[in-house]
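Sanity check

After download, print the first record. It should look like this:
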Amino acid sequence: MSGKTKIHFDIRQYGILVALIAIVILFQILTKGLLLAPNNVASLIQQNAYVMVLAIGMTMVIIARHIDLSVGSVVAFVGGVVAILIFDYHLSWPVAIVAGLVIGVLIGCWQGFWVAYVGVPAFIVTLAGMLLFRGLAIVLVERTVSGLPYGFVAIANGSVPNFLGFIDYYDVVTLVIGLIAIVGITWSALKMRCRAKMAGRYVEPFAGFLIKTVVIAAAVGLVTVLLSLSAGGTPIVLVIIGILVLLYTFVMNKTVFGRHIYAVGGNLAAARLSGINTRRVDFLVFVNMGVLASLAGIITTSRADAAVATAGNMYELDAIAAAFIGGTAVSGGKGKISGAIVGALVMGVLNMGLSIMSVDSAWQQAIKGLVVLLAVAVDLIGNRRNA
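Expected structure tokens:
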């Protein structure tokens, strides 16, 4: 492989991060500085947490060459069940959350069974699931269930307690969390680079690696400072997202199951010949998606402090868009959890920036549609050039 081709690959790999930074700068100018106001940054994370959770699971589903159209309906159904268990049956909210996650596992098993062991295409199974679980949500949540406990509502609306006080106006707990994140990201990047060099694999030029690492660290540092100036500091839901990103990055990069997902999505026939239980992989991918959709339902209900039958409308499209914008290949076999999170942030920044500018919601949908189309087109064109 020539040096020119390697450089081109790196540009494509980190292009979405550059695009996110460019979009942020653009809307910061267009909104006259309102986009990056501290409280708006915290709201951006809290309002789009459900997209990030769903995008993680959707990325894994798409890498395995499938799609899941049911996640929005699952969000409404599980959110309704959890709210009813708390409000009508007086279960403690932690127990209700566990029950909601168990329901997510069962939903994932149901859909995974039809896809993996019966052979029904995932598009059909999850389309049926979209109708089924939306119908169950409408039947179950006949009225708006509101007035949920503070602890439950704090999941999506609360902040990490500031037990270290303030330095001037800066939340010290938030600064510490941000510093730990920057050190962790830098150390992980250096470790991966050293391992690649020792294994004789290609590594990008040190100058490019240094610029990329500094840009990422600077972005995390900026978000940290802004959050430390916000009314609450670090949102609790951001900690949840951070844990999920670390967990699923490890699963996809360091475990046998993660490698099998990439193998199945990259070449199904070759995966079967190499002894991979492809049906089990497909089944577990949908079980995982069911759990994450349930978690997104819990976060959505917590954010609204209410459960309604119409919750989660179009969420599946947000999740699919975030995955594609983040670089997940349409044909499967390629994608990263970090890319999905960046894709979700692109969607979130577009939503918030356009809302601040008072752009009509119909135009917002049209703009997001064009962004998704462009992201997929760039991926396809890039694959053809590489081929």
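If your output differs, re-run the checksum step. Summary of this record's structure: The longest helix spans residues 3-30.
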